[in-house]
Structures
1.
Amino acid sequence: MLEWPDDKNRASGLIQGPAGELQVDVDLPDATPRGLAVICHPHPQQGGTKDNKVVFMMARAATMAGLAAVRFNFRGVGQSEGAYDAGVGEVDDAAAVRDWALKASGLSLAALAGFSFGSAVALRLADRDAPPRLVTVGFPSAYFDAALPRPDTDWLAIFGDDDDVIDVDASIAAVRALEPSVDVQILEGAGHFLHGRLTDLRKRVIAHLDEAGK
């Protein structure tokens, strides 16, 4: 089973999850981490994995902000066991990864983050036990039948206004309607996968996560 890295900046391996083993990557900052961030990937049935470039860039931003970044594959993806569970069991997967990372590292949870489907999972988990920070990218409000939850967390929601995968106008409106207000940031001309805009994404995520240390 995966052990927390202590003499290098990266480790990969398997941990026990609720539906079998889960494949996990840990990336550490150059200095001693001040907390950790768990990052959730896009839809398992549409090619989403922990190695998605948006997820990877959010992990990079977390380490640059001084956090340990934990990426993982949901059940049924890559080496993770189990089968797709329509976003229900996937929240349990994220919780299991979070709990393992907290115990293995001795760090505190600084942030949850996610891209697309993964942002809906991150929001649901944040609603259970609000972390200091939440980052959602390409959040699809249509994944929620009822009113969106508004966890007690500092939430950054990033959208590309040329997103042709989700109903971006409805999603932006739904998040902007929440109280207390969410920090909604729009990348003009950017599509769902933020082609050509990943550096911009990284800078915005670093700025948001850096505030956790102030």
Note: The longest helix spans residues 89-105.
2.
Amino acid sequence: MKTIFEAKATNTGGRAGHVKSEDDVLDFDISMPNSNGKPDPKSTNPEELFAAAYATCYAGAVEAVAKSHDVDDLGDFNVTAIVAFNKEEEGFFLEVTLDTYLPTVDKEMGETIIKEAHEMCPYSKATRDNITVHLNLMLDE
């Protein structure tokens, strides 16, 4: 194994605290949303950070898989990750939905790309068999 790079961030105060990356690019408050949204609209939470990171990583895998199928133009494609913070009797758990919009490919190729990207993506590998991840191919109507 060869480490390509490492990222480092520190939280102080938990879910009602602050997070800061080593390079100071990330530097903001954390707050736990309630049913009315965030108590502080300028804060974030771990699920929002995870959604941003997962969407970005998965989008990179989508690009790589598309190229392997000779799809060089994905147009204005995008990936939206929806991270649900759920509670059941045994405790809390996460669930993720990855909505992928691929405007330049047909349904069959799109489904191939999103499934193969899920096999390749490091975040998908990290969550496999740990949380439910739903894959959705978004199509123009």
Note: The chain has a mean pLDDT of 94.
3.
Amino acid sequence: MGLLLRWVFAFILLALTYNPTQWNYIRWTMDNYLEETPLSVLLGLLLVIGYIIYLRATLRSIGGFGMLLVLSVVGAMVWVLYDWNMLSLDNPNMNTWIGIFALSAVLGIGLGWSIVRRMLSGQYDMDDVED
């Protein structure tokens, strides 16, 4: 459950920043920056904090190569779905959502990698040991 929750929050973070609908930070800021500059800055800083938390944890747990590897696996899954005609890449909005899903998978796995490692190896991290 912990890994799924970390992925959901990564998906929400990315989708709040940008998605193909009108309900995202980028579009809202472009439309309302002059009238809502302080709120635009505040929301932008909150998003940056979220990205720093996720990126720092991901880089520390799986590193750049691990990020590339997870992204490659997700890309290969999309390729298989496309090859089996289960997925069409003609819709640009769907492609954006696929990209958001792929990036959120990388961030979610990166943040929850210690959970996966503990499940596979049975070894605890220092964060898991109680006082």
Note: The helical segments are 2-17, 25-32, 37-61, 63-83, 92-111, 113-121.
